[in-house]
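Chain A, query sequence.
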Amino acid sequence: MSLDGYIAGPKDEMDWFTKNFNDEIGEELLSQRAQQDTVLLGETTYKFFADIWPEEPNTDPFAKHINQVKKIVFSKTLTFAPWGQYKAADIINGNTLEEINKLKKEPGKDIVIIGSANLIQNLAALDLIDEYQIMLEPIILGGGKPLFLNYKDPVDLQLSKSRAFTNGAVALYYQPIKNT
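Chain A, predicted structure.
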């Protein structure tokens, strides 16, 4: 996410993130991925990822991980979500609250959302986000696709972990404070 809260630029560009990517960030992301066995994607992110990751060699650790884990796409329009030579992604187009609660009860590792701002916003509105993992990049975009939009109520967060990188990026881990 950019310092001003965007996950993509005004034309959905993300090259600003990849040009700042380094080995430290790669290590951090891979350590997160080791704890995860299910990836949730919105339709737009799925289409972008499905064109790239299945074609990457399994020598790329991120490609190897995302190609092998369970992928679930939230879409009202897709009926099939192929993933190259790998198992197709499952599609959820029904009751999001019910489906996520079912997923959370299944045995396994953590569930992660990659990108997919609209999906994050929808799940946050349903109080289904257990942790926000944000890679804050040292750039101000001045416009684009915001990560946090249309929240009707404030969401109090508690910082559980952070890590600063030599390129100026900061990994931030926040857990929502449940108000009882």
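Residues 23-33 form the longest helix (11 residues). The domain at 6-176 is CATH 3.40.430.10 (Dihydrofolate Reductase, subunit A).
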